[in-house]
Design a protein that fits this description.
It comes from Sphingomonas kaistensis. Its EC number is 3.1.2.-. By secondary structure, the protein is α+β, with helices and mostly antiparallel strands. It has three helices and six strands; from the N terminus they run ββααββββα. Strands 1-2-4-5-6-3 form a six-stranded antiparallel β-sheet. A hairpin with a 2-residue loop joins strand 5 and strand 6 (114-126). The protein is globular and about 45 Å long. The N and C termini lie far apart (41 Å).
C-alpha cells in the first residue's frame, strides 16, 4: 500500500499561473546558508518541467519519438533578495509568449509573498540534431489557452 508520501510532489495551475513549491536544503546553499545563485535556475527548471507536465505536454514522448526537444535558448534572471536554508519557496510561472518554434516563460521565486528572483526563459523547440523546428501544434494551442486565461484575470 502506498501513501501520499510515496508520491512525488506535483505543482499545478491556479488560473493562468503554475505554482510549484519547494524547500531550500543545505545542498542548495553556500557556507553562509544563502542559496547559491545558479540554484535559482535549477528551481525554475523544476517548476517549468512540472508546468509542462501539468499542461499535458509530453516532452519525453516527443524525445523518444525523435520529434524534438526543448532547449533553453535564453535565460535572464534578476536577483532581488536572498533565499536561505530552510525557506519554503514557491515558483510561479506564466506563459509570456508563444511562437512557432519557442515559448517564453516568466517565473518568480517567492517567499512569504515577497519576490526573491525573477526570470524569463525562452525555450526553443529543436530537432534531435539541434535545429529549430515548429513545436507540435497541440502544444502551441495549449500554451495559447493558458495565455488567454492570463488576459481574462
Amino acid at each position: 500500500m502506498t501513501s501520499s508520501f510515496d508520491q512525488p510532489y506535483r505543482g499545478g495551475f491556479v488560473g493562468p499561473e503554475h505554482h510549484f513549491a519547494l524547500t531550500v536544503y543545505f545542498e542548495d546553499t553556500d557556507t553562509a546558508g544563502i542559496v547559491y545563485y545558479a540554484n535559482y535556475l535549477k528551481f525554475m527548471e523544476r517548476a517549468r518541467s512540472d508546468m509542462l507536465r501539468a499542461a499535458e505536454i509530453d516532452q519525453r514522448g516527443t524525445l523518444e519519438a525523435g520529434t524534438g526537444v526543448y532547449a533553453v535558448a535564453e535565460a535572464n534572471v534578476r536577483y532581488l533578495r536572498p533565499a536561505k536554508l530552510g525557506d519554503d519557496l514557491q515558483i510561479v510561472s506564466t506563459v509570456e509568449e508563444v511562437r512557432a518554434a519557442s515559448v517564453r516563460i516568466q517565473q518568480r521565486v517567492i517567499r512569504d509573498g515577497e519576490t526573491l528572483a525573477e526570470g524569463r526563459i525562452t525555450a526553443a523547440f529543436l530537432t534531435l540534431d539541434g535545429r529549430p523546428t515548429r513545436q507540435p501544434r497541440a502544444w502551441v494551442e495549449r500554451f495559447e489557452t493558458i495565455r488567454a486565461a492570463t488576459k481574462e484575470t
